[in-house]
Amino acid sequence: MIYVRKANGQLQPFTRDKIVRTCLRLRAPLDVAEEIAGKLEKEVYNGMRTDEILRRIYNLLAEYNKVYLLHKDLRKAVSEMKSAPDFEVLVNELMRAEGYSTEMNRIVRGKCTSHEVDVFAYKDNERYMVEVKHHEDPHYYIGKSIPLQYWATMVDINEGTYKNYKLIIVSNSKYSDHAVQYAKCRGIKLIGWSYPPSNSLEKLIEKYRLHPITYLKSTNSFELDEFSKLRIVTLKDLANYSINELARRSLLKKDRLEELQIMAKKILEFIEKNEQGA
Predict the structure, then answer these.
(1) What are phi and psi of 209, to 5 degrees?
(2) 80-207 and 209-275: same fold?
(3) CA distance 258 to 54
(4) Cys-Cys with 160: which of 39, 43, 110, 186 at CB 3.0–4.6 Å?
(5) What average pLDDT score do residues 17-25 get?
(6) Is 132 a residue whose pLDDT tops 60?
């Protein structure tokens, strides 16, 4: 049996099925996924890093459709976002897409002290405070201390001016078993990477096609900073923005903006086409 090395250094058995599932998640047809899995089965070696395998998957997918040359892995793209305001804005947009009305970055008085809450969300006569945790390391695990901390914040707010708020924590990380156990006991809703399985962060992003601007492989830090200043956080934002207005309000050249907008539209069109089963 061949073992591959995960980002945390742990070894795990290489499985052909996982390659197929990754390709299907990236919207490749089943026959293409099976073909790529077969090629990788012949290339993989003991100790090969999983990020190397992922890069190879993208290179092979690009032979099938060049759109794969335009974007990177979603998990990596989300980890490369600015924690504030970009990831917070993304979470706010996801909450709105889920049917919540929202308010961002409000300072409220609790019983003992004041708190800045990332997002307040309202739906079906229920009120939520939404706290956002972003990590540059996409493989980071959130422990029990974070739900404990935000639970204490929520209690103080509910004992102050604001009443009957529930708690949602959204992160690009995974949660430890202890964090999940505590959250379930306290009625805290957790949204993170691969959690909950039916409505995780990546599934929400893909469901509403709210892929971050960092999903574009060719963007550099200066361009991302300029987009951030204008609160252009997703490919949808870029695709729908007036190029003339963008050129006027940013330090980016018009021809480069047009190039990036075309890339964003190609990716979104590819996603939509494959969701429709075309």
Answers:
(1) 55, 45
(2) no
(3) 29
(4) 110
(5) 92
(6) yes
Enumerate residues 6+ apart whose C-beta is below 8 A from 227.
Answer: 213, 219, 233, 237, 238, 250
Check whether 277 has a pLDDT greater than 70. no
pLDDT at res. 6:
87
Counted residue by residue, the chain has a size of 278
Chain mean pLDDT for the chain:
94
Where are the chain's structural domains? 3-66, 80-207, 209-275
> How far is CA 167 from its chain centroid?
20
Pairing of strands 11-13, 3-5: antiparallel
pTM above threshold 0.85: yes
Pick from 196, 206, 224: which is nearest to 275 by CA? 206
Report, at the CATH architecture level, how domain 209-275 is classified.
Orthogonal Bundle (1.10)
> Average pLDDT for residues 120-140, to the nearest whole number?
94
CATH number corresponding to 80-207 = 3.40.1350.10
- Which pLDDT does position 278 carry in this prediction? 43
